[in-house]
User: Which sequence fits this backbone?
């Protein structure tokens, strides 16, 4: 049995070696082209409640995930990722939480981003509802004695 499996393994490797050398090109003559799909959530969103004490605005910034930019010296950037920029209610102007990479949760229905703010870790969930509003859930995990919380919001797209 040992000799049989050993010879099958050797035959399998030789076959694989022949297939690889004859069917897979070693280089491309021109760069591959990809098209970016439009993202239905892309753009700016405002909370439907102008008096909210929570999240006031969201900028959903879609980018092609497979684009990589290289300079003439061969230095390349990492592929761009869609990001979310969140603003929270502050006075006198809203607080910019910064940009965070957008992630997809198990399906295209829910997307989320994570914000580490020192005093708390915030996970912000996004989904488009049937009324074309952005539904947002903000889960806050406080690092001090405050009780963790989840807040829900609805946002309308800001027209340019």
Assistant:
């Amino acid at each position: 049995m040992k000799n049989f499996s050993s010879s099958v393994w050797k035959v399998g490797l030789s076959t694989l070696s022949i297939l690889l050398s004859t069917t897979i090109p070693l280089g491309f003559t021109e760069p591959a082209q990809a098209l970016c799909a439009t993202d239905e959530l892309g753009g700016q969103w405002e909370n439907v409640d102008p008096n909210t004490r929570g999240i006031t605005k969201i900028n959903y910034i879609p980018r092609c995930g497979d684009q990589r930019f290289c300079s003439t010296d061969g230095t390349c950037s990492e592929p761009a990722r869609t990001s979310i920029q969140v603003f929270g209610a502050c006075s006198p102007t809203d607080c910019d939480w910064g940009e965070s990479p957008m992630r997809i949760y198990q399906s295209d229905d829910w997307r989320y981003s994570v914000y580490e703010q020192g005093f708390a870790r915030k996970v912000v969930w996004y989904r488009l509802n049937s009324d074309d509003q952005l539904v947002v859930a903000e889960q806050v995990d406080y690092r001090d004695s405050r009780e963790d919380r989840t807040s829900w919001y609805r946002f309308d797209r800001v027209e340019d």
